[in-house]
Write a structure and sequence with these properties.
Layout lengths: L5 E3 L5 E3 L6 H14 L3 H5 L5 H16 L5 H7 L4 H12 L17
Helix pairs in contact: 1-3, 3-5, 4-5
């Protein structure tokens, strides 16, 4: 799987290799990572840092609502189950992240 393939990052942490993504999803991933100032590999990886989690939830929201991808398709790109993606999207729609903090405005990927 994706987590089995590791590449050493610039710092001394190991990051997963980005999975093959459709162009629109790849663009969204890079736009969200730029907005939150995190590496795209962190969004698709197992990181539990708050900023990475918020970026991951925004990525899920954009992929579902704007790109019309299925929860399973999105989950495969971030190594998460479809129910995790469903919960992240619901929380984003409610206007808060999992901890109840208001997220930043979504990026415009259009």
């Amino acid at each position: 799987g994706i987590r089995d393939k590791l590449v050493t990052g610039v710092q001394t942490c190991a990051l997963p290799i980005l999975p093959p993504l459709p162009p629109a999803m790849r663009h969204t991933l890079f736009e969200v990572s730029r907005k939150y100032k995190v590496h795209p590999n962190e969004i698709v990886g197992p990181s539990r840092r708050a900023v990475v989690g918020m970026a991951r939830r925004e990525y899920c929201y954009i992929c579902k609502m704007e790109l019309k991808k299925s929860y399973s398709q999105i989950g495969r790109t971030i190594c998460k189950d479809h129910t995790t993606v469903l919960y992240a999207v619901k929380m984003w729609i409610k206007g808060k992240d999992i901890r109840g903090v208001q997220p930043k405005k979504p990026v415009d990927c259009g």
